[in-house]
From TrEMBL:
<keyword id="KW-0732">Signal</keyword>
<dbReference type="InterPro" id="IPR021109">
    <property type="entry name" value="Peptidase_aspartic_dom_sf"/>
</dbReference>
<dbReference type="InterPro" id="IPR032861">
    <property type="entry name" value="TAXi_N"/>
</dbReference>
<dbReference type="GO" id="GO:0006508">
    <property type="term" value="P:proteolysis"/>
</dbReference>
<comment type="similarity">
    <text>Belongs to the peptidase A1 family.</text>
</comment>
<dbReference type="InterPro" id="IPR001461">
    <property type="entry name" value="Aspartic_peptidase_A1"/>
</dbReference>
<dbReference type="InterPro" id="IPR001969">
    <property type="entry name" value="Aspartic_peptidase_AS"/>
</dbReference>
<keyword id="KW-0645">Protease</keyword>
<feature type="active site">
    <location>
        <position position="282"/>
    </location>
</feature>
<keyword id="KW-0378">Hydrolase</keyword>
<protein>
    <recommendedName>
        <fullName>Aspartic proteinase Asp1</fullName>
    </recommendedName>
</protein>
<keyword id="KW-0677">Repeat</keyword>
<feature type="active site">
    <location>
        <position position="82"/>
    </location>
</feature>
<feature type="domain" description="Peptidase A1">
    <location>
        <begin position="64"/>
        <end position="411"/>
    </location>
</feature>
<dbReference type="Pfam" id="PF14541">
    <property type="entry name" value="TAXi_C"/>
</dbReference>
<dbReference type="GO" id="GO:0004190">
    <property type="term" value="F:aspartic-type endopeptidase activity"/>
</dbReference>
<keyword id="KW-0064">Aspartyl protease</keyword>
Length: 452
């Protein structure tokens, strides 16, 4: 259930220097075989966790990415990290429509197609309607996004370079999509990434496949910097030893997503009428989305409070649906923090533990120097009653998805660097895309012999 901004303005390269190591997958030496972690203690050795540098930002780019090495010899591909969907896919080196921009990041299948009769193929389809003419046929897929975008392709399996935090590396064979027909909503250009890294809870997700192979614990986390960049990690070795707030994953029909709730909304520390919110933590969403009722109530709370301030609506700024301007253009979020009150989400089944949303967690400063509300109407983009905590509200926090213990955790952090001692330091129109992870079986292209 991801909401992405596919708008491309300028690609800023943000370098993240990690103490002790920098991730260069091509330079690491291989270890022989995956290890079985099922009987290990909850705190595993360094070799059971992996970390990747993250680049990107909420505005103006609209997504955070990691680079992964695929194939033998390995080749680097940039992926939009997405905890709101399962299937990982990359641009296919085939006649295609709607391809993303980098021609040097096209993946070419080499007799490594997943067969239709395999369990992995069945795992990408949400219903039993998908039928194989023959078990040895290729496994076709289509993932459709709620903003009417989609990816159409064929499932393949290839080596992925997974660097551990101790400097060793494994190269497991992972299933992913080779997409040859992508659709992007609206007039904006598609992103300059090669594809999407699906990090959801379904069996075809990148995380689930690594865990099934015994390579890592079923835990993932990310730290997205408000300045741009950050880091993504697999396994539990990089979870801070103290300060993490944990809430249980919310049992719902959205079992493939990281859901939490029910939650109440607080404004300036006071309870509001907004309650019983089911929330999805989604790194693939640029902004935070609330259902129409909750969204309008939030807009009213913020707007009414601003009546005392010297801010006016910036109706000529279409960066986001609601923007405000001051006496002179704002240069940073620091200049507007005093005008806006903090929000918070209080989780009723977790002793009212709160997910804090200070102004910098729901506002952006546009190129025009205006402050815009980064909370959008989810009903308008097809989310109906669902609510999403997107990148804008996940910034400057280590956010952890612990599938083994079915809980979600977070703690404020400096996401510009990783502390080696594991202690924490102190851009509405439908063009803001929505990813719903819905699969169907319409897939006409044929690639030939599949791998047994």
């Amino acid at each position: 259930m991801s909401v992405k901004s596919w708008r491309i303005v300028a690609l800023h390269t943000v370098m993240l220097f990690l103490l002790f190591f920098v991730i260069f997958p091509l330079t690491l030496s291989a270890v022989s075989q995956p290890r079985n972690l099922k009987n290990r203690n909850s705190k595993t050795s360094d070799a059971s966790s992996a970390i990747f540098q993250v680049e990107g930002n909420v505005y103006p780019l609209g997504h955070y990415t990691v680079s992964l090495s695929i194939g033998n010899p390995p080749k680097l591909y940039d992926f939009d990290i997405d905890s709101g969907s399962d299937l990982t896919w990359v641009q296919c080196d085939a006649p295609c429509k709607g391809c993303t921009k980098p021609p040097d990041q096209l993946y070419k299948p080499k007799n490594n197609l997943v067969q239709c009769g395999e369990e992995l193929c069945a795992g990408i389809h949400l219903s039993n309607e998908y039928q194989c003419a023959a078990p040895s046929d290729q496994c076709d897929y289509e993932v459709e996004y709620a903003d009417q975008g989609s990816s159409l392709g064929v499932l393949v399996r290839d080596q992925i370079t997974l660097p551990y935090t101790n400097g060793s590396v494994v190269r497991p064979r992972i299933g992913f999509g080779c997409g040859y027909h992508q659709k992007y909503f609206g007039l904006n250009s598609p992103p300059s990434t090669a594809g999407v890294l699906g990090l959801g809870r379904g069996i075809v997700s990148f995380l689930s496949q690594l865990h099934a192979l015994g390579l890592i614990r079923d835990v993932i986390g990310h730290c997205l910097s408000v300045k741009g960049g950050g880091f993504l990690f697999f396994g539990d070795d990089l979870i801070p030893s103290s300060g993490v707030v944990w809430i249980p994953m919310f049992p719902s029909s959205l079992e493939k997503h990281y859901s939490a709730g029910p939650a109440k909304l607080l404004f300036d520390g006071k309870l509001t009428s907004i309650k019983d919110l089911e929330l999805i933590f989604d790194s693939g969403s640029s902004y935070t989305y609330l259902n129409s009722e909750a969204y309008q109530a939030t807009v009213d709370l913020v707007s009414n409070d601003l009546k005392r301030q010297k801010l006016e609506r910036a109706i000529d700024d279409d960066s986001l649906p609601i923007c405000w301007k001051g006496a002179k253009p704002f240069k940073s979020l620091g200049e507007v923090k005093s005008y806006f009150k903090p929000l918070a989400l209080s989780f009723q089944k977790a002793k009212d533990l709160q997910f804090q949303l200070p102004p910098e967690s729901y506002l952006i400063i546009t190129k025009h120097g205006n402050a815009c509300l980064g909370i959008l109407d989810g009903t308008e983009v097809g989310l109906e009653k669902l609510n999403i905590i997107g990148d804008i509200s996940l910034q400057d926090k280590i956010v952890i998805y612990d599938n083994e213990n079915k809980k979600i955790g977070w703690v404020s952090a400096n996401c510009d660097r990783l502390s080696v001692n594991r202690e924490v330091e102190e851009g509405f129109p439908r063009r803001y895309a929505t990813d719903s992870g819905i699969f169907s079986d319409r897939c006409p292209a044929i690639y030939g012999t599949t791998e047994k």
